[in-house]
Write a structure and sequence with these properties.
With about 180 residues, the chain is α+β, with helices and mostly antiparallel strands. It folds into two domains: about 1-105, Peroxidase, domain 1 (Orthogonal Bundle); about 110-180, Glutaredoxin (3-Layer(aba) Sandwich), CATH 3.40.30. It has helices at about 1-20, 25-40, 40-50, 55-70, 75-85, 90-105, 120-135, 165-180, and strands at about 110-115, 140-145, 155, 160-165. A hairpin with a 2-residue loop joins strand 3 and strand 4. Helix 1 crosses helix 6 and helix 2 (about 25-40) runs antiparallel to helix 6 (about 90-105). The radius of gyration is 21 Å and the shape is elongated. It starts with a helix and ends with a helix. The relative contact order is 0.11.
Length: about 180
């Protein structure tokens, strides 16, 4: 929990700067680049995120990454600050929080749709459209198969939960019968 609140503060700080100078999208792309490089190279990830190397070597390594990726001074400063404060391992959480802030700014929201069977792109698109109209945002759903639902779908978007599954309907009928 503390990890997330700290990551949220760094993400909000970077987003505030990006929103003010109009470069929040570019900063997000740069965070994605950094995470792509770090995720692709386990040795680099360990060298930066684990305090096994002395700080001077970690600074040099980070400077090399910043130069190689031609990062903006703003994102470079964030990375250096994280390293100095021994919080570079917060970077994945910061990127996730930052992505949520960008989505919110651009009127997007993400969610999940659970279904007991594979869902066609057409049906998924129609569900996203209807939810988008209801929420006033562009909705992007990821599909998860859950055979326990029996039939129908369950959708979770932000704080909204819509359960139209057969399993849920059976549970409601069972509760109704037990109340009588």
């Amino acid at each position: 929990m503390i990890h997330q609140s700290i990551a949220r503060r760094y993400a909000k700080g970077l987003f505030a700067v990006g929103d003010k100078d109009g470069k929040y999208g570019a900063y997000f792309e740069e965070l994605e680049q950094v995470m792509g490089v770090v995720d692709a190279n386990q040795k680099l990830r360990n060298a930066l995120m684990l305090p096994l190397l002395e700080m001077a070597k970690r600074r040099d390594l980070l400077s090399d990454v910043i130069r190689a990726l031609s990062l903006s001074p703003t994102v470079a400063s964030l990375l250096q600050l994280l390293l100095e404060n021994h919080r570079i391992d917060y970077l994945p959480a910061i990127r996730k929080m930052y992505a949520e802030l960008v989505d919110e700014k651009e009127g997007r929201t993400k969610g999940q749709i659970f279904t007991p069977y594979p869902l066609s792109d057409d049906i998924k698109g129609r569900i996203e459209k209807v939810l988008g109209e209801r929420l006033g945002k562009q909705v992007q759903l990821s599909t998860m198969e859950d055979n326990s639902l029996i039939g129908g779908v369950k959708v979770i978007v932000g704080g909204l939960r819509i359960d139209g599954s057969v399993r849920h309907q059976l549970e409601l009928m069972n509760e109704s019968i037990l109340k009588e």
